[in-house]
Amino acid sequence: MRWLGIGDAGRVVLAVFHAARCDKPISVVRAARRWTVRMKHGWLTDCVTIRSSALIVMLMFGVTQLSSIALTQPFEPISELKTWYTDRNPIDVEIIASTGQGNEARRVEPERILRLRLERAYVDSISRIERPSFSSVSLSFDMPTNLPSVLFTAPPEQVELRGDPIRQLPRAEFASRTSVILLQSSNSSDVLPRVSSELNRCKGGKRQDDLFLYDKEQNHSCLARSLAFGTKYVARLSDDISLLIRCSDALIGCETYFPFEGFLPSVSFHESHLAHWKEIIGKATEFLQSKKYR
After folding, report:
1. How high is the pLDDT of residue 132?
2. Radius of gyration of the chain (CA)
3. What is the per-residue pLDDT across 124-160, written as a single tens digit (0 to 9) for each?
4. Nearest to 252 by CA among 174, 195, 155, 162
């Protein structure tokens, strides 16, 4: 007998489960190579304990086997969302780098592809068009737990806990814990050297180490970006890379871009984390890295 394909170990646990009959005091011997359970507080209690323990072990085997099955499934990227927003089953997402706008969009050569496998609940929206070539995906996660953020706002009866520390959060707490990542095929990290040079000419007053107010008066080239909404900052990620951070009054109102695998995804976060913007980028990078299809 095999249970979910777990082999000999699974057969032994099943044998222990069935041998632990609760209708008479019996030692579990033959089923598990003379594994004998000695009764200390009465045969009924030991019988139930044996069966409960065996059942837990079987469930562990089952979860492991199902996880293994998910990891070995062929990669099949989706182009639209077809299941409920709290669905925790894995889906595949593919972003293929493109260049050009509108009908002129085409894949870059050589191809640059990012493949992700993650729970459906992480995905807020997705778009995938073959001609003209364009793809994008919006993802959100809870920073303290790395779980899908929607699970912390959905009705409890719609959430599959899986043993995770999930509870409904007030609106303000939810916003302060949520990170939103937007990946678009047309956004490439190749532009960073040029953009960084332009941003460095627009540094204003220093807010903290590596964070400066964006000052449109510093250079005539700074005017264009100053017209966008919100307060703007120049953030120095490294000696070679500077980023623009925009913050508005929205609930998750700060946004910046960061390099990842040749792409330039954006990450949005609550303004209370502005002083720790590098940590926000680090968490977003680690999240994407952990979801890469291998």
Report:
1. 77
2. 26
3. 999 998 877 899 999 999 999 999 999 999 999 999 9
4. 174
